[in-house]
Amino acid sequence: MKAYKLLTIAILLSISLVATAQFKVDSNGRANFGSATTTNYSKLNIGVDGYRNGIAFSNGSGTPFYIFRSGDNAYLSRNTNSQKGLFMNNMGQIVIGRQAYDGSTGIQGRVTIYPSTLQTSLAVFGHWDISNGGDILKVLSYNPLAASYAGWYIDKTTKEWHKTFFVLTNGEVYSNFHLITSDKSTKSNIETITSPLEKVMQLRGVTFNSQFTDNQEIKIQDMEEYRKKEGQSEIINFKSTSELVQQINLEKKRKHMGVVAQEVEKVVPEVVRTSYDGKKAVSYVELVGLLIEAMKEQQVQIEDQQQQIENLQRLVSPNVMTKKTGQDEAISSDISGVVISNNKLYQNIPNPFSINTEIRYFLEDNVKNANLYVYDMQGKQIKNITNLFRGENSITINSYELTPGMYIYSLIADGREIDTKRMILTD
């Protein structure tokens, strides 16, 4: 037994003497491989470059998994370079794939991915059975104008970089083109929008200041710094000028234009959604369908009104028109006469109306006789308002005085037409 122990010690001693140039253990228990390890960084130090002098994990038949260093770069790979793995440089930047399609090996950020084939470069999955408003992918920034997500393409001929779209952290989206899937196969229960014009008339367009606007002025030095941070600044198609900086600062003071979601929801709730934080959002794109149908409805009304106006003009022509008043009096009215001086008739407000509407007019002091007539679209007189005051005045028409429909009203002063306009009474 004692002889066996002595033999074992002798064998181990001989091995340590042979390997003393490659493997050393110091007095602190730190193990060093390779002759270049003059500094002990950890319990295990490897001082030789190359995948054959690193660490390999293998079951003897599959492709090994290597951990090694080459120059000032560290590698984790399933082959002898990073094309099937990744490498990290001395700045902590990571590249997966390590080969760009144009043959370059440039690093474009903290993490750069170069897939070897046409495949998904990065896939992120959320929990399959949870939908609570959580973020699958989150981007944080202290600057609202930082591009949190951007798309680029490289011109194969000039090697110039072009940014094609980007999303700022304040929610602004910039792109060269935008398409939304609208195929019939993706829709069901398709119906034409009803009463589109009435709905549009109830909407309110507004201008406003956004809480996400960055009002801090930028300097041309900021633009140059931005260019440098994009990486590969010498090939990016980007120029900073004092005129550009001035323009951007000027635009920061502009107000925005749109609608208020809470108001829109009362009229067309189909285009409004509520997020998990309770804030309302409007799909401006979906309002296009409403506007299309509203314009079509309005065009039908215009054409119908034009036809009715032409019919009415043929009725009144430049001849004497007998208007039936309470006492069947005949009033001579040359409708085609010249407008009298500064006398004016204004469009009723509101129009259309459902409760009442106001008709403003102006009559010069020298007008002797003036009447406001209301006709239906068949040319039948409905109202004759007399004793109009001179100067700037108005007349109120109540909905209960008429039945829903379209009407024409005319201001006649001293036997001549001042103006004729139309008004619409809705239910």
Provide structural commentary.
The chain has 427 residues and is α+β, with helices and mostly antiparallel strands. It has five domains: 21-48, no CATH class; 54-120, no CATH class; 191-209 and 255-316, no CATH class; 214-249, no CATH class; 318-425, Macroglobulin (MG2) domain (Immunoglobulin-like, Sandwich), CATH 2.60.40. It contains six helices and 23 strands. It has helices spanning 2-18, 196-202, 220-229, 242-251, 261-267, 287-316; strands at residues 23-25, 31-33, 44-46, 55-57, 65-70, 73-77, 85-88, 94-96, 111-113, 147-154, 161-168, 173-175, 206-208, 256-258, 272-274, 280-282, 344-345, 356-363, 370-376, 381-385, 391-398, 405-413, 416-425. Strands 4-5-6-7-8-9 form a six-stranded mixed sheet, with no helix packed on it. A four-stranded antiparallel sheet has the order 20-19-22-23, with no helix packed on it. The protein has a three-stranded mixed sheet with strand order 1-2-3, with no helix packed on it. The longest helix has 30 residues, at 287-316. The termini are far apart. Mean pLDDT is 77; it is low at 10-21, 231-237 and 318-340.
Briefly note the structural class of the backbone: alpha+beta
Low-pLDDT segments, ≥5 res: 10-21, 231-237, 318-340
Let me know the number of strands.
23
Biggest sheet strand line-up: 4-5-6-7-8-9
CATH superfamily of the largest domain: Macroglobulin (MG2) domain
Sheet with most strands: 6 strands, mixed
Percent in helix: 10-25%
**General shape:** elongated
Strand portion, in percent? 25-35%
Q: In angstroms, what is the radius of gyration?
A: 41 Å
CATH architecture of the largest domain: Sandwich
The CATH topology label of the largest domain is Immunoglobulin-like
Distance separating the two termini: 114 Å
Query: What is the tally of helical segments?
Result: 6
Assign the CATH class of the largest domain.
Mainly Beta
